[in-house]
Design a protein that fits this description.
Elements (H helix, E strand, L loop, with lengths): L3 E3 L4 E3 L6 E8 L3 H18 L3 E6 L16 H15 L3 E4 L6 H7 L2 E4 L7 H13 L3 E5 L10 H10 L6 E5 L2 E2 L5 E2 L4 H6 L5 E4 L5 E2 L12 E2 L3 H11 L4 E7 L13 E2 L3 H15 L1
Length: 283
């Protein structure tokens, strides 16, 4: 499998490389929360010797309710992410939802992320791939909730065709939905996707979602099983995942989006130290 590199950051992901950590906040709520989270996670990952990419969403377009908080939007969100990048000297990951967003997003984000529900949208994938490559970045593609892992080969092929055969794709496992407000993570999906010659990450946060099942809002928002995040993350790393995608909050129960699925920021060091140990044994 080819090892993929973010040359400008001297970071790599893939076989024989350290476990990559893509982590931050679910949605950009406030500058204070974002800066505190970035500072804490940078310190933890530096102490553990793990490559780190800060993640934050400027827009959560897939919401259960029209009243749900979505974020500050493209312009303000990218400005805040650029501030994180400059202040902490960190690479950035964020998702985009429309083809017109690809170029401005790739100008800030080093990992341009394709949301799971949108990964079969050819124009969207092509736009993101070309913009990411033009800026020396990579494309982080989440596997759709209804997609078999081996069918992601079509996405990998689509990206390679869009960027003249360059290897820039990282695939992300985030669970499969069979209805009834639940997601199931098949750990065999990780080696299946790695057979395609690409690095694979695990989105352990969204994998424990219970879509439309938050009792606090009578189903008007997504529920989750926070205690399962560490379990999913450990199992995925044991199954060969090259990176972990995690979301934190200083007070998860007050998070404006997906609170039941995100972890307290104070738990980051213990979890990441354990994941590093599992990765070392497997590799």
């Amino acid at each position: 499998m080819a090892v993929l590199k973010l040359e400008k950051w001297n970071l790599a992901i893939g076989d024989g490389q350290p476990l990559m950590v893509i982590a931050g906040v679910n949605v950009l709520e406030s500058r204070e929360l974002v800066m505190e989270t970035a500072a804490h996670l940078k310190a933890v990952t530096a102490e553990l010797g793990l490559p780190y990419v800060f993640k934050g969403s400027f827009d959560k377009a897939n919401r259960s309710s029209i009243k749900s908080y979505r974020g500050p939007g493209l312009e303000a969100g990218l400005a805040l992410l650029a501030e994180v990048k400059a202040t902490f000297n960190l690479p950035i990951a964020t998702d985009y939802h429309e083809t017109a967003q690809a170029v401005p997003v790739a100008a800030v984000a080093d990992l341009v992320q394709v949301p799971a529900f949108l990964n079969r949208q050819t124009d969207l994938v092509v736009a993101g791939a070309r913009a990411a490559k033009a800026n020396g970045g990579l494309l982080h593609v989440k596997k759709a909730q209804q997609m078999a892992p081996w069918d992601t080969r079509n996405i990998v092929s689509k990206v390679k065709e869009a960027v003249d055969g360059a290897d820039i794709t990282i695939l992300c496992e985030r669970g499969t939905q069979f209805g009834y407000n639940n997601l199931v993570v098949d750990m065999l999906a990780i080696p299946e996707m790695k057979k395609l010659g690409v690095p694979v990450t695990i989105d352990a946060t969204h994998a424990v979602q219970l879509p439309g099942a938050d009792p606090r809002t009578a189903g008007a928002s997504t529920g989750g099983r926070r205690d399962g995040v560490a379990v999913i993350a450990r199992c995925a790393v044991a199954a060969g995942a090259d990176g972990v995608f995690l979301e934190f909050h200083t007070d998860p129960d007050k998070a404006l989006c997906d609170g039941p699925s995100c972890l307290p920021l104070s738990s980051a060091r213990e979890l990441l130290a354990g994941l590093k140990a599992v990765h070392a044994v497997v590799n």
